[in-house]
Write a structure and sequence with these properties.
mainly alpha; three-stranded antiparallel beta sheet; 4 helices
């Protein structure tokens, strides 16, 4: 810790390797960074060094095959999402209301009744009659 003068500014370094303002001096050995990040960087480097055009195209072709021909609809959706994310970039997260609107538009869900609102002669799912 540093000692402070009367106006709250540091008068001496916090530890060896730090300036009076708290910044690390060049060549310090105190903070070497996140070891997990360094490991991931190493794995990425190894992947880039060892990928060939043929291997990349084989992986890409396999991903397309899953998107187009998998028996599992979930696998097709995930492969398609991955392809689109790689080609177009990741989209913003959708709200549950946006997801439901898309599901309704493609026929995967029925609209939920709106509370207290009359739509097409129905209020809260009940038929409205004028008798």
């Amino acid at each position: 810790m540093s000692s402070e003068n009367g106006n709250g500014t540091a008068t001496q370094p916090l530890t060896k390797g730090q300036a009076a303002n708290g910044r690390f001096l060049p060549g310090h050995k105190l903070a070497k960074g996140n070891p997990f990040l360094h490991a991931v960087q190493n794995y990425r480097r190894l992947a880039y060094e060892n990928v060939t055009d043929e291997r990349f195209l084989e992986l890409w072709t396999n991903l397309w095959d899953v998107a187009l021909h998998s028996k599992s609809p979930f696998a097709r959706i995930e492969a398609t999402r991955e392809i689109l994310d790689r080609l177009l970039g990741k989209c913003d997260r959708m709200t549950p209301d946006q997801i439901q609107a898309i599901q309704i538009n493609v026929g995967l869900a029925e609209p939920k009744p709106l509370g207290g609102v009359t739509v097409n002669g129905h209020t809260n799912g009940q038929h409205h009659s004028d008798d």
